Amino acid sequence: MKVAVYNLRPFDEKEWFEQYSKELGLQLVTCSDAPDLSNAELTKGCTCVDIITSPINRELMEAFAKNGVKYLVTRTIGYDHIDLDAAREFGIHVGNAPYGPNGVADYAVMLILMSIRRMKRIMQRTNMQDYTLHGIQGRELKDLTVGVIGTGRIGRTVISDLSGFGCKMIAYDLYENEEVKKYASYVSLEDIWAQADVITLHTPLTEENHHLINAETIGKMKDGVVIVNTARGGLIDSEALISAIECGKVGAAGLDVVEKEFGLYYYDHKNDILDNRQLAILRSFPNVTVSHHMAFYTDNEVKTVIRDSLTGCKLFMEGKKNPWEVA
Ligand code: NAI
């Protein structure tokens, strides 16, 4: 039972891959790089491939299929980086590994607090021994309305976490959840734009909600609105966000994810000239906190995704019901 593992990180993942593959009786072929056509041959003789957020396009899917791959699992919750049509075309099943929502929810709450308390500016000043107060006055959550878009596992946890802060909460999702109603009222997207002081995104990226936050929807928001995105970069039109920050319409943003982050995030680029102007501009603003898609990254998450991604492979190979299969 062979599994090809891509993007294996030696410093935190290796020991767990070794432990769980031994426990599950799986043989691993490992590679620290992202999968591409030049290293697809690693998958020869492997029934399963284990990846992270690297795009898997039709060509790569075809190469995997030719090598005998039948199951592709991503050590992430989101799977928008995988061409599911191609997977169906080449008969490859796809699974994910949805670890607990608390790590990302904690992070979203942290970005909300950092944004409303102007923490980026405060830290920059403290580092330079500038202990002045001008320009760093914050706002209190209890005075604000938080709009949560997407009330699945993470959005729901954010709502329950925020319930202790005394803020008003409104929520939008395609499907309502009874638990959410204990703390928040479901409203339309139009009401989220009109009423929220803080908007936090927790939906998957789909064709339907690509650039959900754009020039038109930002125009309907409150002046000084705070936008937090720990979901996917493509939910926000970066150009529209930049213009709205420049004119003061958006008061602050916390962005764990941005458009065109693939190839940048998780690599050391300090000596490189990067081909992502929008990221450079967003990073330069004193009221925008950018992090490199790491809201998930906790001790608990690493262990859980490795265990569940490999368990999914094992179940698949044994022809058993696999709760993590998504397509
Ligand atoms: P989930 O599947 O439990 O919840 C997603 C919710 O979004 C569902 O309730 C669904 O009905 C709703 N939804 C889908 N399309 C929508 C739309 N167009 N408008 C409104 N609601 C919509 O997913 P979970 O676990 O809560 O994760 C949410 C997202 O967070 C993931 O899809 C992923 O993109 C992102 N994520 C980011 C991480 C990071 O490290 N920054 C880590 C983990 C997840």
Morphology call: globular
As residue ranges, the low-confidence spans are none
Proportion in β-strands? 5-15%
- The N- to C-terminal Cα distance equals 21 Å
Structural class: alpha/beta
Radius of gyration, in Å, reads 21 Å
Which CATH class of the largest domain? Alpha Beta
Order of helices and strands: EHEEHEHEHHEHEEHEHEHEHEH
Count structural domains.
2
CATH superfamily of the largest domain: NAD(P)-binding Rossmann-like Domain
Total strand segments: 12
CATH topology of the largest domain: Rossmann fold
Main beta sheet strand tally, sense and closure: 7 strands, parallel
Numbering strands along the chain, what is their spatial order in the largest sheet? 8-7-6-9-10-11-12
Helix content: 25-40%
CATH 2nd-level architecture of the largest domain:
3-Layer(aba) Sandwich
What hetero molecules are in the model? 1,4-dihydronicotinamide adenine dinucleotide
Task: Give a quick summary of the entry.
The chain has helices spanning 14-24, 58-66, 84-89, 102-116, 119-127, 153-162, 189-195, 215-219, 238-246, 277-284, 299-317, and strands spanning 2-5, 27-30, 48-51, 71-74, 93-95, 145-149, 168-172, 185-186, 198-201, 225-229, 250-255, 288-290. The longest helix has 19 residues, at 299-317.
Give an account of the 3D structure.
The model has no long low-confidence stretch (mean pLDDT 97). The chain has eleven helices and twelve strands. The two termini are 21 Å apart. Helix 1 runs parallel beside helix 11 and helix 4 (102-116) crosses helix 6. Strand 1 (2-5), helix 1 (14-24) and strand 2 (27-30) form a beta-alpha-beta unit. The chain has helices at residues 14-24, 58-66, 84-89, 102-116, 119-127, 153-162, 189-195, 215-219, 238-246, 277-284, 299-317, and strands spanning 2-5, 27-30, 48-51, 71-74, 93-95, 145-149, 168-172, 185-186, 198-201, 225-229, 250-255, 288-290. The protein has a seven-stranded parallel beta sheet, sandwiched between helices. It is 33% helix and 15% strand. The protein is an alpha/beta fold. It binds 1,4-dihydronicotinamide adenine dinucleotide. 1,4-dihydronicotinamide adenine dinucleotide (NAI) binds next to helix 6.
